[in-house]
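Hi all, long-time lurker, first post. I run a small reading group and we've been trying to get comfortable going from sequence to structure in the token notation. Rather than ask abstract questions, I figured I'd post a concrete chain and ask someone more experienced to write out its structure so we can walk through it together at our next meeting. Sequence below, copied exactly:
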Amino acid sequence: MNSGFVSRQYPERAALITESGVTLTYAELHQAVDRLATALPARQLLFIVGGNDLPTVLCYLASLASGTVPLLLSSGLDQVQLNRLIDTYDPAYIFSSTGAEYGTLVHQEGAYGLYRRADSARVDLHPDLALLMTTSGSTGSPKLVRLSAANLRANAASIAEYLHITHEERAITSLPFNYSYGLSVINSHLLAGASLVVSDRSLMDAAFWRQINDHGVTSFAGVPYSYDILLKLRLARINMPSVRTLTQAGGRMDAAKLRQVSEICRAKGIRFFSMYGQTEATARIAYLNPEEIEHKAGSIGRAIPGGRLWLESDDGRTIAEPGEVGELVYAGGNVSMGYAQKAADLALGDLNGGTLRTGDLARIDEDGCFFIEGRRHRFLKILGLRISLDAVEQIAADKGFACAAKGTDEQLVIHVVDKPDFVADEFRTAMAKSLGLHPSVVAVSRLPELPRLPTGKVDYQCLTQLS
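-- Answer (accepted) --
Happy to help. Here is the structure in token form:
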């Protein structure tokens, strides 16, 4: 059996290192994966409800090896949302922490059990389907991304190439395994024969930093919110002598903060990569070289190796002129097969044909670097004016306020993180003026902090319920 991309080049090197001190070499990892793969059903649907721990990672890799098709879900997922997914897709098996009874226990792996659901209908799965992931920001939604083994391999190889990941690197799982960015760290390092420290700790936890220093971790990944935390923790003063690389993706990061992090990293001798991706393209689409951040902060850079990016106008014309805004389109071997919204969709073939319309609006500069201007569908039309919600958040950030914008074509709602000097009426008047709107169509809501998903992204679904 072969789990697709786990290196066989370095059998004696450490592959996975757990917090309790258990280390699996690559030879031992292959044995563990093959052992668990024999307990899994070939070509059946499996929900993996887990965390950043050894049993969960082993089950994911064993699924790829056995031909089982897993949907990756967080153990922190709300039970109502999990039940909705179970009702929609009717999985044959569920891998979950023991105690949560989902059927007949057929295998135990650490604190987890593999449960067979006797009454589930056999779901028809396309031969190329290897993995299912929830779309970014919609963990309770039945909308899933369908990925092939070829998608996973292509993206892992491309990431390993541009980040120069060799067998001497050692990453830590600083993001959830069920988030495409977090999973891509696992995939790219295992492909390269590098080591992974398996951690479920938060950046705020002293034990996370102990793991980094005790195990000589060379890199970790973060979303913009991670870097907000790192700056609060005084990144410049954090002792992490083994760290050589930091990466950022998972949403737009404020240009001033990007430059700030970049300068701190340069002083520490750390490479800092700013990147862009979508679950629909397995994980990664573009990256900006560390040396370009100072002059191009806010740019997503260029396409990853093996991929191609371009802009299209609404009438389908390819845009080559620097500065003109169009939809960002990507082509590459990592583009997913498409979506699933119901069990019958799991039998569908590749509907994307290797090309992804990202839904992001962007421009290109004279050097061929792309800049995201907003989302196609993150717009309101108020009093005849087209208002970009991304632009609203950026204008507020420029005024020194953290916020999340939502609303309808009748009213813009700005949820602002409260602070001592905040005067709601003044803020509303200033924002209305900047946007060219009458203050009567702008509502301001004060929050102690913005609700966030486990990935660190703003939970807009939760904000809709608050509005």
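A couple of things your group might point at:
The mean pLDDT is 93.
The radius of gyration is 22 Å.
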